[in-house]
Design goal:
The complex is a heterotrimer of chains A (352), B (310) and C (337).
Chain A (H helix, E strand, L loop, with lengths): L20 E14 L5 E16 L4 E5 L6 H8 L7 E6 L2 E2 L5 H8 L2 E4 L13 H12 L4 H14 L16 H13 L5 E5 L7 H18 L2 E6 L2 H7 L2 E6 L2 E7 H6 L4 H9 L5 H6 L32 H4 L5 E2 L5 E2 L17
Parallel strand pairs in A: 3-8, 3-9, 6-7, 7-8
Antiparallel strand pairs in A: 1-2, 1-4, 4-5, 9-10, 10-12, 11-12
Chain B lengths: L19 H7 L3 H10 L2 H23 L31 H37 L1 H16 L2 H12 L3 H9 L3 H16 L2 H8 L4 H38 L10 H10 L6 H27 L11
Helix pairs in contact in B: 2-12, 3-4, 3-12, 4-5, 4-7, 4-8, 4-10, 6-7, 8-10, 9-10, 10-11, 10-12, 11-12
Chain C lengths: L5 E12 L2 E13 L4 E5 L6 H8 L9 E8 L2 E2 L5 H7 L4 E4 L3 H4 L6 H12 L4 H14 L5 H5 L8 H13 L5 E5 L7 H18 L2 E6 L2 H7 L2 E6 L2 E7 H6 L4 H9 L49 E4 L2 E3 L5 H9 L7
Parallel strand pairs in C: 3-8, 3-9, 6-7, 7-8
Antiparallel strand pairs in C: 1-2, 1-4, 4-5, 9-10, 10-12, 11-12
The chains are: A alpha/beta (352), B mainly alpha (310), C alpha/beta (337).
Amino acid sequence: MSAVTPTPQVAQPDAARVPIIKLEGVKMHFPITRGIIFQRKVGAVHAVDGVDLELFPGETLGLVGETGCGKSTLARVVMRLFKPTEGKVFFEGQDIGNLKSKELRAVRREMQMVFQDPFASLDPRKTVGSIISEPFVIHKTLSRNKIKPEVQQLMELVGLNPEHYNRFPHAFSGGQRQRIGIARALALRPKVLVCDEPVSALDVSIQAQILNLLEDLQTEFNLAYLFIAHDMSVVKHVSDRVAVMYLGKIVELAPGDELYRNPKHPYTGALLSAVPIPDPDLSLKKKRIFLEGDVPSPIDPPKGCRFHPRCPVAQLPKCATDEPVLMPHHPGQTAACHFPLADRAILGDVEG
Amino acid sequence: MPEMPPTVPGIADTALTPRVEEEITLTLSQRQLAWRRFKQNKLAMASIFILALISVAVVVGPFFTGYNYHEQDFTARLEAPSAQHWMGTDTLGRDELTRVLYGGRVSIAVGLGVAIVASLIGTLIGALAGFYGGRLDNLLMRVTDLFLSIPFLVVLVIAANALGGSVLAIVAVLAMFFWMGDARIVRGVILSLKEKEFVEAAKASGASNRRIILSHLVPNTMGPIIVNTTLAVVAAILTESVLSFLGFGIQPPVPTWGNLLNDAQSAMTLAPWLVWFPGLAIFITVLCVNFIGDGLRDALDPQQKIGVSE
Amino acid sequence: MSEPLLEIKDLCVQFPTVDGLVCAVDGISLTVDRGETLGVVGESGSGKSVTFLTVMGLISDRQANITGQVIFKGRDLVQLPKDDMRAIQGNEITMVFQDPLTALNPVHKVGNQIAEVFVAHRDITKANAFGEAVRLLDLVGIPKARDRASQYPHEYSGGMRQRAMIAMALALDPDLLIADEPTTALDVTVQAQILDLIDRLKEEFNAAVVLVTHDLGVVAEHCDNIAVMYAGKVVEFGSARDIYYDSLHPYTWGLLGSVSRLDKTRAERLNPIKGLPPSLIHVPPGCAFHPRCPHVMPMCSTQVPELLNIDGRHASACHLSLEEKKRVFHGVKGARP
């Protein structure tokens, strides 16, 4: 027993937590080639163009953005399904960018993916049991006779009837197929789950079932989620922190509630103001930011701030020449903008 | 907001029990479902039945006719169909029925042999080209284009002459010119499947390329391959017939439907039945295979799904 | 009250299929008044799209068994001969679809496709029709309309294609515009632009709009009245305020409880509806929702509840008594202002 008065527990600052996944300066460019016999590069799609990111154990990091922002590509770089054109990807401190296939396979056990399309993400010719047991077979972690009971246990865990082991994907509804995909992802008890629009293709009532399931699984297995979606309402509901992407870069990163209360980047503001709220009175209290035009192509991003051609608060010449970097605002919040929004700009009057 | 009871995982999804018929459908594999659909095509089912009859006839028949296919009988030349010779006799007094049946063995065997060998070659090439892409794809596809540009009948004739008229030689030569269709089809299917998420999922699970190709991609190309192979059988039978008719294919005395037609040429006015019987045999066989191919194409159509509606 | 523009009475649409008879629409009755925006909300299989495809005459009696009436400006469209229906399609009733890429013909210039609508229904030369098309493209906010009219659909972005579709739909000053999931395939910022455009143009053209969607947020922001559909029937009907602040059907409660909302905090858990959507071939007996309803009573599995008016136009199809419904809805959390 110490005679010294114990110091009150101070919450560990974020800096002291070790990220389980870390991205540094990651770029993913897809070359555009022309030519029949010999192909030469004429340009590139700058899908991801310089992203730094950290994912901490047990947290949910939401990644939100519209078409062409690069979020799906980024997910696949994190999963090492793509090798980044530039930059480094660290898993538990280890650089996985240049791993040989055997070592990479070991890392694959620790992070898994849940896909968007419940109809395309399962091999239509395999039984459900065979689909979920594939990770066990590939990594040879279980003997043959132990696989089936393990798979059935996984099926129960995600809310499927274990007696349907021998059925085929076409016998299941969209929501059930997503559950199968989740069971497959959990087979080897990974530490990270990358969810690429896991509920976008589902009906509203089924979405809620799956989101609750993901929440329960996260608590039970202390999973870290990288949750990618275009639906801001869903992302807000599931995420601890949210990153907003535009044309291959992260333009704002903040804890969930903070992002929604005090968005700093005008694009975040525009996204928030565009999201319909299922409440006639509250939706009238939302402040509107209107964007002109459509999302430009990532082949030739605008110079300076990529958002400036559509930005309602852009000021030339600065925004067209200087590319803004992520600057801190509220605690835990960074945004890349020369003229950030004031506090409570969009939903200020909406929340309670 | 009213408090709804929390979802209990496990109970939630089995709240609705489908009726018995749906239960049965739900456990069927793609293959079984396809068979169910196929059965509804009356023409295709009839064709299978007829083809089965023909197959039995050509395999077993020659033993029961009482004649040999090369047994010559100069006293019974060019006889019309009768009780002793159901299909009459040819210019050398050989029993036409036996020759047609035996010829069927050869023609059908050649057809099947060519189609299967060509499918194997084509699938391999198409799978490699589609999966690996890039320069390998380029190379393999240019080779395919090359083969498609060759006037194959000419080369066939030359090659058949050079290699001799044995069944094996003809099958080998014909297979050389039948694999291209499969290659292109398989490559196309694999190109589109490659991007599907279940392939990404397999990669994310750590599956090797070999596993992905053999276990995931190729089984999903089975549908188009089977259909194409069926149609290749037709083409092979017809091509062999033409070759043999022209005198370049399988050499007598081994009968094939093609060279039976060749033999019949000279006696056409005197014994027209010698043209009808082999001709009819080719026609009916090919027609049946075509109908089966159509039936398979409809049954294997991936757009059709019998299952729980969304 | 003036006569409604569109009155659907007891419409039933059944599709014969290999597996059985699919009851896509199972007796629905709805009205649309002039100048109103009606939202029709439902999930997959609710029958919302089939209903309005039938109204538009896009589902023929060769494909399906159609019974009931669809009365538009005094005429029953179900009974109308093909030529008369064709005169109305694209002219008095028009439709905007979900995927503009497939709704527009990729081998014709956009301007020509819009011009075609004029040529089909009005006595006008091709050149003049093209001029009208350019005017319309400008009206829907497409920049450099004259140049854009000579382009092909693949040269347009998703949002622009949808604007072009709206232009085509409004070309002949229709009385009724049906928008079937018009923004589901679009990004959220573009969605906001398109919905605002529809609102604005609706005023200018004095048209009625039916917005068919699964998005509860969209109908809250843009619709006057809302019909909630489930398994081919309307289960609740009312004004936007009725549905969101006074809803009287367990399915509506379930939907509202399932939706993620920007104004909710992370800690508030979603309340999904248990179970799966029903098969349309083997629809559950009685109330189609009963297997999933947390307030199910014995009579729910035997008697089909009728859509009964409760207060003004607010109607609900549920066996629970009015007091029960109010008690449950306003129960634990207390009533919303």
